[in-house]
Design brief:
Helix content is about 50%, strand content about 10%. By secondary structure, the chain is mostly helical. The strands form 2 sheets. A 3-stranded parallel sheet has the order 3-4-5, with helices on one face. Helix 2 crosses helix 3.
């Protein structure tokens, strides 16, 4: 979702710093790309340390920070170029579509509503629905299972190295979206194709990828 449906990395950085300021914690210059796609608990643990996480509690940290993010991002959500056209085409051909995100359930529902894709997405998996975040394959494996498909029938679209690794581990083909990482990074993690945005993809390419 993040960086794949929408290019929102900058909003996560700004909202993270704003939240740290409110908590009187040290702000950050930027979020490391190594954290992209990771579960929010892992991100907080790395960024502010285990002691502060235990002091405030992961649930409180996640709920409060993501509320700041949604408030700042509301009204500014734009789909990655070509996304809506590809989603509508897939839906017209009876292809099931799922969201598999390490973000919380509230963030997933927020993006679905902002993009107006409630009738296109068949199911969505959030970080709140699983035990393990990416690069563990649980998120994508759960999405595949819910759709009643086999992993080899599915294509994962990801902008993060951790996400590509999770998709590969789940047994799916992967396409890298170059919003936050380089071709070398995503291809090195296992992406079969890397594109700038969805305008570079057609249904023929997707059909060929899954045979």
């Amino acid at each position: 979702m993040d960086g794949t449906l929408v290019d929102n990395w900058a909003y996560h950085i700004v909202s993270f710093n704003e939240y740290l300021r409110r908590k009187r914690l040290t702000p950050i210059a930027e979020l490391s790309l190594d954290l992209n796609g990771r579960h929010s608990n892992d991100i907080f643990r790395i960024m502010i340390g285990e002691e502060q996480c235990q002091r405030f509690g992961f649930e409180t940290l996640n709920q409060e920070k993501e509320a700041v993010y949604r408030d700042m991002y509301s009204g500014h959500v734009e789909p990655i170029k070509g996304l809506m056209e590809l989603l509508r085409l897939a839906k017209s051909k009876g292809i099931k579509c799922a969201i598999g995100s390490s973000g919380c359930r509230e963030n997933v529902e927020f993006i679905i509503k902002e993009l107006g894709i409630e009738d296109i997405i068949d199911t969505s998996i959030s970080g709140s629905d699983v035990t393990h975040g990416k690069p563990h394959p649980e998120i994508f494996a759960t999405a595949v299972e819910r759709m009643g498909l086999k992993p080899e029938e599915c294509i994962v679209f990801e902008d993060a190295v951790n996400g590509i690794k999770a998709g590969v581990a789940a047994g799916c083909k992967c396409i890298g979206i170059l919003t936050t990482a380089t071709v070398e990074m995503l291809a090195g993690a296992g992406a079969s194709i890397c594109v700038k945005d969805f305008t570079e993809l057609g249904m023929t390419q997707l059909e060929e990828l899954v045979g």
